[in-house]
Amino acid sequence: MATVAASPTYASHATGEKEGIMAWLTTTDHKKIGTLYLHTSLFFFIFGGLEAVLMRWQLMKPNMTVVTADQFNQLFTMHGTTMVFLAIMPLSAAFFNYLIPLQLGARDVAFPRLNAFSYWVYLFGGLFITIPIFGWMAPNGGWFAYAPLSGRTYSPGINMDFWVLGIQILGVSSLAAAFNFATTVINLRAPGMNLMRMPMFTWMSFVTQFLIILAFPVITIALVFLQFDRFFGTNFYQVSAGADPLLWQHLFWVFGHPEVYILILPAFGLVSEVLPTNSKKPLFGYPVMAYSGILIGFLGFGVWAHHMFAVGMGPIGDTVFSLTTMLIAIPTGVKIFNWIFTMWGGSIRFTAAMKFAIGLIALFTIGGISGISHSSPPSDLQQTDTYYIVAHFHYVLFGGAIMGIFSGIYHYFPKMYGRYMNETLGTWHFWLNFIAMNLTFFPMHFSGMLGMPRRIYTYDANQGWDTFNMISTAGAFLLMPATLIFIYNFFSSKKGGEPAPPNAWDAATLEWSIPSPPPEYNFAKIPVVHSRYPLWDLTHPERTKDVPHTDAGMVHTGEHDVVDMHIETETFTAKQLGIPMPSATIKPFWTALGMVIMFTGLLMMPHNKTAGYAGIGVGAAMLVGFLYAWLTTPLEEHH
Amino acid sequence: MRAADSAGRPIPSSVLSLGAQPLVSANAHAAPAHGGHEEHHHYTTTGLDSRKIAIWAFIGSECMLFASLISTYLIYKGRSIVGPFPHTAWTNPQTGQVMKPILNIPVTSASTFVLLMSSLAMVLALAAVENKDKPLPAGAGLGDRMLASSKLWLWATCLLGAGFLAFQAYEFTSFVHEGLTIKTNLFGSTFFTLTGFHGAHVTAGVIWLGTLLAIDYKRGLGPKDALNVDIAALYWHFVDVVWIAIFTLLYLIPD
Amino acid sequence: MTRNFRPRQLVRAALPALLLLAIAACGGNYPNSTFLPNTEFNRDLTATWNTMMFWGTIVFVVVEVILIVAIVRYRRRPGTPEPKHVHGNTLMEITWTVLPLVVLGIIAVPTVRYIWKYQAPAPADALKVQVIGHQWWWEFKYPQYNVSTANEVYLQAGRAVEFELRTVDVIHSFWIPALGGKRDLINNKTNILWFTPDSTGEQSFIGSCNEYCGDSHANMRFRAYTVNAANFESWARHQAANAVFPPPPPAATEAATAVPAANTGATQPAPAPAAAPSTGFEFPREQMGAHTLPSTPIPASLKFNEALLANGDATRGFETYSRSLCIGCHTIRGNPASRSPIGPDLTHLASRHTIAAGLFPNDAKHLAYWIKNAVAMKPGAKMQVVGKGEIDAVTKKPVAAGGLTDEQIADIVAYLRTLK
Q: What is the ipTM of this complex?
């Protein structure tokens, strides 16, 4: 019998193990990939935030000249693009990566190398679309890139080329990840974990994957049309050839509205983990929570044209999309009440994570109510494209998605690093963030209803907007120290935080039954799950006695040697336990890089044909070559 | 407690004896390098291989992709300002000549038939791979032997697919000669993009089947490879079904 | 660790800000408010808004009160017993599904009513205004009056106005918040928007582009004036007439005010100049609201010798103008050299209060800077840089041949100032 010194960190011990930076470049471990996602997307979150601060500075008073018109237009285009595609989506992806396999009782995702590929494509795509702003060459047509403004005629520069190709690249990443996670949830659940026993975060993530799978192809095609128009002179949005520019708007919003739920559902999932854990109570109305998530996802595809009430669709279209939009408020409202009644009668512990979760409930409600006010088309005609809308969706996305994600970070930090984040700093972060957020965005309700349009880099004096803009800018400046506190807390707690036990918060789900940080193989023995709250079944059976259970005999485990629900406290290496793990490999990295080089070649085509062809050639060769090498190498080395 | 606390202690035998189940699903393709190894039996919730699930998810996504392309075609149908038009005569502005509608339905019907036959060949190829281990019945004739040949049916699928692509190349070339390019009008842009996307899918499928064929020549495809062939077949059938939709909506239904 | 100051107490610091917000929201002067009861649309929608906010506030208060009660009452204290483990309650869940449905029903009724009401055809006697969006200015045509103007739209108080919205380049959106909802200007499509400014009296309003349309989207503003019927007729009759240069002495004009029936504004093939009445109505500057008087600063980098303006000679200006690059884009009906429909119609430029889509007041000084370098004055402006020595926006080189000196610009300004 071997005697081993178990490692306190999760440095790679997989076959073909690498050290240092290579360990990160070659990793196929979902936890390390999740960590990469988390850090990269936090970086982009800060970056997008600074873009916003610069905009708020420009709008502090009438007729300011902090930035030029074109710079401002680049800033708001990139702020939206960054926050949607490079911050919130990948922050959610960080949690998909880290948590879904752990919550399911799996040892990795279904396709670990594809997972690495998704990350690298995201990173390179993110850099591709972000770097141009350093030369003020960034996309300037808005994150929605409405035709015909985004076409070559009205945006002749390279700016929108970065956007069109960059979003296309990021789409590949999102789709690859979505196939992966959808498959993982369908196929890699621990024995006994039927769908109605999945943790709510995994549930909401599962719905999100379907939204990505069905919505991203639509934006892909819309972008292909735009790309062809810009590069090959096709007529999809060429109004002189009789094209209808509303085609872009329809395609964009058929994607864009589900995208909103892609951004918010994972955060809903996270707070659905945090609230019950910190209230010592099971989630109130679990089935309804799951069904409402599905319903939101489903209805999310039927409301897209509510972004287009001002285009003149006619009364029938307006009526239909107005009513479907109102309907979607119902499942969302149900979630709010179920969360509150999860806490009701509980024993609430105000951790930083819990504060952010409660913050989400409080603020998302405001966003939901203002949302209702523009589900009414005549009313929306006075609101759309004004600051009222900016206020609305920041309550939904900042007050909703970002609050939920912060909640998730505080909650899962001990699982990721074996140490708690500092609660005092977390509390400061919460309150500063909460106040600054409201200070920034609440006045925008007023400036919008008082006639201030969106996306203007300047405004005249005496319009009645000065006070509100001043307050908004003050709030935006206040968000900086708030975020700084978080960043300091995040990095200092990795080394100096208080050590956390495996079940850091006395939670109920599988990820808390293994050491923190989890070993590379996650579960030495795969547990059989009997209920929604497997860990409480062990530690607090009284909390779960009313939920449906099955006994071990009823769980079909095939010929597999699985064991009953248990707690693992010791960390070994996969090699010691003889668990075959996916080999580390650099191939996804090069494949992703090849793809991005190929797109860079296409970007160069209108400017320098030689460089363009070279880029496409080299990129395609790398893509095909490394993909071939990848597909012909087995996932695991055999023992 | 943190894992570091356990430093130095021996691993309990219970952990060692129970840990070795490969519960990570493998996506290693049964490519040459992998083929010789002993197959792991991977635990999955559904009992299906994860790749099978993923290909269905992928096909779902592809449905939305083609739905977007086809919808765009339909939205722009009849809205081109200048000819050529698909179903109606048009006047060439340069020569003043009245030209026939540009779509050649008999030729495309033939290519459609070719593509549909390739699906049949694909079904037979999969069956041949699945039944590779079964001995031929006594007195098996040429027909039985042909049915059992995965190489034959993979070749047939590939060639029929390539034949369809040849038809498409012919069609595209003749359209360009008649003055229709991707830049000409809305019909040109939507037509070439939609059918071009489909053609690219067929091309990818032919290459995919070609690699299966290469493996078949190298070491022979057998029942253990059935999943790989099955996945390729699912993709192939999907591409065919999409073509039926395109053929009906583009070619058969006039303006 | 010191516990003297807890983060939660930050809320106290935030309260004054909230108070300021409340005061600002109640006490201020909001000329662009969407709640101003100037039209039936705004009144109806204010009522709908009030309904929505009534129910919204109830929902908000109910949610936040339950939330706050929950977190205060059920906070964990030492010795808190293990809570009772409720997994759900079907009746409660049905309640909070059905009650919001009822509220939404209450909102849906006026919604659907107003969707149809405000997309019904406009009254037959409505004033028709064709709105044509350009990057980044507004063209207004009155087919019933043969008027073509830019960036300032005159409406008749009490009379329905029907806007036909079109664009020549990208999508824009037409919005006068104090008069009603917005509507987009979309290529290959004519959108309609109508309302009746029935309780405005004579007032000035700000309108703006509401769909992001490129560089100077923020600078695509316009003015709307509601005037009484007589003033409107006077304005329209004057605007329809051609400009006459040199301007006739005031007494000689009244007879020659006949409006050619075929006069269709910019595309009109310059007939023999009909003399303009010198007494057309103009919205009085002193009656303009403070919000409609532009205050955009002139960029410091742009220099013009303002002393020259006093000596500008209109006749020299007329000649310089008629030979300059200006005529490549602008129409001055009555000036046969100036017939291009690309830029704003300048026939009655001097009767407008603003230039450059509402960015600057229409005075000699701003006109001079504007002519010298429009791109410096308004980012991305399509108007060519014509000041000699200024950097051309397209070629990035100083303007040489064909460029205008400050003296020439002063002359042109003097000419343009005659176009009442």
A: 0.92
